[in-house]
Amino acid sequence: MIKNGRKNRLQTIVVREFEPKDKAEVHQIFYEGLMEMVPDTAFRGLKHHPESLLLYTAMTVLCFVITMCWWVIGFLPAIVLCGRYFCSRHVIHGYLEHAMSTDMGDIEGFYMKSPDACLWVAVLEGKVVGVVAAVGQQKSGGAVELQRMSVDRKCRRCGVGFALGQKVLDFAAAHRYSFVVLGTTAYSPAAHQLYQRLGFRCVGVTNGYVTPGARWSLLERIFYRVRHHHYSLDVQHNKITSNGQQ
Ligand SMILES: CC(C)(COP(=O)(O)OP(=O)(O)OC[C@H]1O[C@@H](n2cnc3c(N)ncnc32)[C@H](O)[C@@H]1OP(=O)(O)O)[C@@H](O)C(=O)NCCC(=O)NCCS
C-alpha cells in the first residue's frame, strides 16, 4: 500500500495482484493506453525521424516536378499526415490483436500461474486505474521484463505509474533477479520520465524497430517508423524510496 503524496494527498493507491473480476477494466486501460500511441507515433514521432522528413520532402519535390502543379506542395503534407495516422493506427491495432491473442487474452494462464510472471492492478477509491506486468526472461538469465504499463487517463500524475513500477522492482528483488528491463516506442515524455524516475537507464535505441503485429508493407515502411528505447535497471544496486529519490 502506498500513500499518494502528489495531486491528492487523501487518496491511497493499492497495488494488488490481478483477479478475474478486473479483466474488463484491465483491457479497457490497456486499450486506451495503446490508442494514445497512434497520434503520438504519427505526429509527435515525426520530428524525431529526420530520415522520414527527408523522404517526404523528396516525394513532394518529385510529385511537383512530375505534375508541375503548385498545389501539390500544399496537398502532399496533408496526405503524409493522414498516411502516418492511418498506418500508425493499423500497426497499433495489429499490436493489440497480437497482445490479445497471447498474454492479454489469457491473463490468468499467462501471468498468474507461473512464479516467474505476474500482472498487478492499481486500485484507487475502489476502482482499477492502472496495470503493469512482469515476466522473467528465461533467455537472458537474471532479467525480468516490465510490460503493459498503463494508467487510466483520469488518474495520471497521481503516483499510480510509479507505484506500479515499484511493485515490479519489489517482485524482481524478491525473486533475486539481477535486472529489470523494458522497451518502449513512446515519444511522449511521460513514460520516459517515469522510468528514469524509477531508476532505469536507457541502454540502447533501435531506430526502425519492427513492432509486433506490423506487416511491414510498403505503406508501413513509408509512413510508420519508430524508435525503440531499451531501459535497464540493476536491481541489486538500486536503492529507491517511494519519493523516487535514489
Ligand atoms: C506513462 C504513464 C504510465 C505514467 O503514469 P502516471 O500514473 O501518470 O505516472 P506517475 O504519476 O506515477 O508519475 C511518476 C513520474 O513520472 C513522470 N511523469 C509522469 N507523467 C508525466 C508527464 N506527462 N510529463 C512528464 N513527466 C511525467 C514524472 O517524473 C512523475 O513524477 P512527478 O509527478 O513527481 O513529477 C501514463 O502516462 C500512461 O499510462 N501513458 C499511456 C501508456 C504508456 O505510455 N505506457 C507506457 C508504455 S511503455
TrEMBL record:
Keyword annotations of the record: Acyltransferase, Cytoplasm, Endoplasmic reticulum, Membrane, Microsome, Mitochondrion, Transferase, Transmembrane, Transmembrane helix
Lipid bilayer topology: Single-pass membrane protein
Catalytic activity: L-aspartate + acetyl-CoA = N-acetyl-L-aspartate + CoA + H(+)
Protein's recorded name: N-acetylaspartate synthetase
Subcellular localization, as worded in the UniProt entry: Cytoplasm; Endoplasmic reticulum membrane; Microsome membrane; Mitochondrion membrane
Protein species of origin: Lates calcarifer (Barramundi)
Gene Ontology CC entries for this record: endoplasmic reticulum membrane; mitochondrial membrane
E.C. designation(s): 2.3.1.17
Family, per entry: Belongs to the NAT8 family.
GO function terms (MF aspect): L-aspartate N-acetyltransferase activity
InterPro entries associated with the record: Acyl_CoA_acyltransferase, GNAT_dom, NAT_camello-type
Domain called N-acetyltransferase: residue spans: 13-225
Pfam families: Acetyltransf_1
Transmembrane residue ranges: 53-80
